[in-house]
Amino acid sequence: MAYGLLKLLHIGTVYVTLTLFLVRGAWMLVDSPLLQRRWVKVVPHINDTLLLVSAISMLIVGHLNPLFHPWLLVKIGGLLLYIYLGTMALKRGKTKAQRTLYFVAALATIGYIISVALTKQIIPGVI
Questions:
Q1: What is the reported pTM?
Q2: What does the pLDDT read at residue 1?
Q3: N or C: which end of the chain has fewer CB within 10 A?
Q4: From the CB of residue 106, how many other CB atoms can be counted at a distance below 10 Å?
Q5: Pick from 68, 115, 89, 72: which is nearest to 23 by CA?
Q6: Domain residues of the chain, as ranges?
Q7: Comparing C-alpha atoms, which of 42, 51, 41, 40 is closest to residue 16?
Q8: What is the C-alpha separation between 52 and 30, in angstroms, rounded?
Q9: Does 49 score more than 90 pLDDT?
Q10: How far apart are CA 45 and CA 118, in angstroms?
Q11: pLDDT of res. 125
Q12: pLDDT tens across 6-32, in order?
């Protein structure tokens, strides 16, 4: 698959991931029983798998090594942080106040990852 198509798939799955996380976070905030539906637990994992596969494929097709492109390494680290924060926000946070803080932190992390992707800078806005 051509790099451009992989990039479109990657960006599309980023939008879906963000949308699903926002919806699930909103449901968490209002204690909605919808958060317990089977599709809500399955679909995000399928989408996130496509997101990861497209990212790895772009690295391979584009001959990009995260060790030589620090912004890619930072995106990977940001992804790991987002996974942790998202899990704490939606499942493992002990109180709603904790889950809310984790949710906001996860959203900030997504914003950071996207800004790094767009600018290809570790600290976006700083040359």
A1: 0.90
A2: 76
A3: C
A4: 22
A5: 89
A6: 3-119
A7: 51
A8: 30
A9: yes
A10: 24
A11: 84
A12: 999 999 999 999 999 999 999 999 999
* CA contacts within 13 A on the Cβ side of 50: 18
Q: Is 24:40 a contact under the CB 8 Å cutoff?
A: yes
Asked if 103 and 89 touch (Cβ cutoff 8 Å), the reply is: yes
Amino acid letter, 13 = T
Structure tokens at 115: 């800004």
pLDDT for 53-112, tens place per residue? 999 999 999 999 999 999 999 999 999 999 999 999 999 999 999 999 999 999 999 999
Report yes or no: 124 and 116 within 8 Å, Cβ to Cβ.
yes
Q: Would you call 34 helix, strand, or coil by DSSP?
A: helix
Specify the amino acid at residue 48: D
- Exposed, middle or buried, 25 (CB in 10 Å: 0-12/13-18/19+)? buried
Asked if residues 75 and 116 have their Cβ atoms less than 8 Å apart, the reply is yes
Q: Average pLDDT in the 110-124 region?
A: 95
Residues 50 and 84: their CA atoms lie apart, in Å, by: 19
